[in-house]
Write a structure and sequence with these properties.
Number of helices: 6
Radius of gyration: 18 Å
CATH architecture of the largest domain: 3-Layer(aba) Sandwich
Number of strands: 7
CATH class of the largest domain: Alpha Beta
Number of domains: 2
């Protein structure tokens, strides 16, 4: 499953929806998405979260998708952060070990080949038990993500995320002692 498929699946699943697929050789495939109707009142966003929050510090972004790394770095630089990147978990651990004193937060992709998010999280905490980690995934916060959160991960954000969402989540985590 690629990143776009994971995002679509995670969004549909998080909204208690279902996806059906029908295909016929030579005629392609038809995907149908079913989402339940919401009974919630439309709310106006709180002004405190209406605009992105700027910040300072160094963030290590570990994600195997080049596009996500590129876009995230642009977003984070625009918010005032310095970014280090790694396109796999093993490189991320090496960069963290070399720059531990300078890194304020690690944004960690959950699903990666070889060194997945769960393994990287555990090894980050071995290197530095106080490391602040924001878990990121196109999947909902079920299964592996929930396990990592229960082991002390500082936060979770679902891809795709907006500039507002990531800025507020980072500010929330960095403000914790």
């Amino acid at each position: 499953m690629d990143a776009a498929q994971a995002w679509a699946y995670g969004i549909i699943k998080n909204h208690d929806g279902i996806i059906t697929v029908s295909s016929e050789v030579g005629h392609g495939a038809n995907f149908t998405f079913f989402l339940p109707a919401s009974q919630k009142q439309l709310s106006v966003p709180d002004q405190s979260t209406a605009s992105p929050r700027k910040g300072i510090g160094t963030i290590l972004m570990i994600d195997d998708e080049k596009m996500i790394l590129d876009v995230s770095v642009q977003m984070l630089n625009g918010l005032g952060y310095t970014c280090l990147t790694a396109d796999d978990g093993q490189k991320g651990l090496e960069i963290y070990a070399q720059n531990q004193a300078d890194i304020d937060l690690v944004i960690l992709d959950l699903i990666m080949p070889k060194y997945g998010g769960e393994k990287v999280f555990d090894q980050l905490k071995t290197i530095d038990p106080d490391a602040k980690v924001l878990l990121s995934s196109g999947y909902s916060m079920d299964g592996h993500a929930k396990k990592i959160m229960q082991r002390g991960c500082d936060g979770f954000i679902q891809k795709p995320f907006t500039l507002n969402e990531i800025s507020h989540k980072i500010a929330e985590i960095l403000s914790q002692p």
